[in-house]
Amino acid sequence: MKIEFAPRSIPLERRLQTASVVQWVFSFMGLGLCCIAVFVGLLFTRFWILSVLYSAWWVYDWDTPNKGGRKIKWIRNSVIWRYMRDYFPVTLVKTADLDPTQNYLFGFHPHGVLVAGAFINFCTEATEFSKIFPGLSPHLMMLGLFFRAPFFRDYIMSGGLVTSDKESAYYILRKPGGGNILTIAVGGAQEALDARPGAYKLLLANRKGFVRLALQHGIRLVPVFSFGENELFDQVENPKGSWLRCIQDFLQKYMGISLPLFHARGIFQYSFGLLPYRRPICTVVGKPIHVEKKPNASEEEVDKLHQVYMEELSKLFEDHKLKYNVPEEQHLTFI
What we know:
Blueprint lengths: L11 H31 L5 H13 L12 H4 L2 H9 L2 E5 L9 E6 L6 H8 L5 H4 L4 E6 L9 H6 L3 E3 L2 H8 L6 E6 L2 H5 L8 E2 L6 H9 L2 E8 L6 E2 L7 H13 L6 E2 L17 E5 L13 H22 L12 E2 L1
Parallel strand pairs: 1-10, 2-5, 2-7, 3-4, 3-5, 6-11
Antiparallel strand pairs: 7-10, 8-9
């Protein structure tokens, strides 16, 4: 394989963009393990008291990821995220105004490999979410396993990440006065196994938990489609039934995480590596779907709202796909 190296004359701006994405990929893939290693390692040094004090704080703060997290404004506004935004670049598009006195449930599609669009748009202010949707505070759900890593849990909460369980969802959606958005990457880790350029299959046909959640609380559903999300990485072929897919499905079923073997480009060359390609992401937020509160909704009522949601998501995709270089003959497939 011929390696295409990056030219030496790259402007500083682009180098900073690449550096911001390097730290993000590292944070997603390895920072949690590093934090665990530091926490344990400190116990065997003269600085052991730091781990002990943090343990006391950890016990006291244990439920915070399930109770809306703890955003830190200056981290969400960091210049690092603006460089990361410009690397792709990432844009956020609004198709309808949202009432800041209401709470909303965003369904984010597709999951992609690393959910880059959801992170930049809803966990940072790089795309000026607060100006586009004034009065609304976004929260993005993430696998609870990540919140069991010391130090790392505090870092990810600072952007607005919360645990992906019912308790966490209930806390946000029940907040009086409105102004809260709960974002769920509906396809989850399982959908990530099929994320590759040109893929428009969404794991949605039997994903109805978020619809039932909306009915229980009378929360408006908002479909969100992130164009370009699946274009960021290539992935090792893993057709259903292959030994690789069987291992990945096993890990996803019993551990809650999937391990897509993805690749794209490197830091100093463009031929291979774990950094995403520089391809644009445009996250389009659709119109809210009115949901009548039904705490004990029947399966028929859940199915009816689920069908409405899929139709609205398909319409959102069809209305915008030509703007973002999706072939006219391409349509969403729900599996």
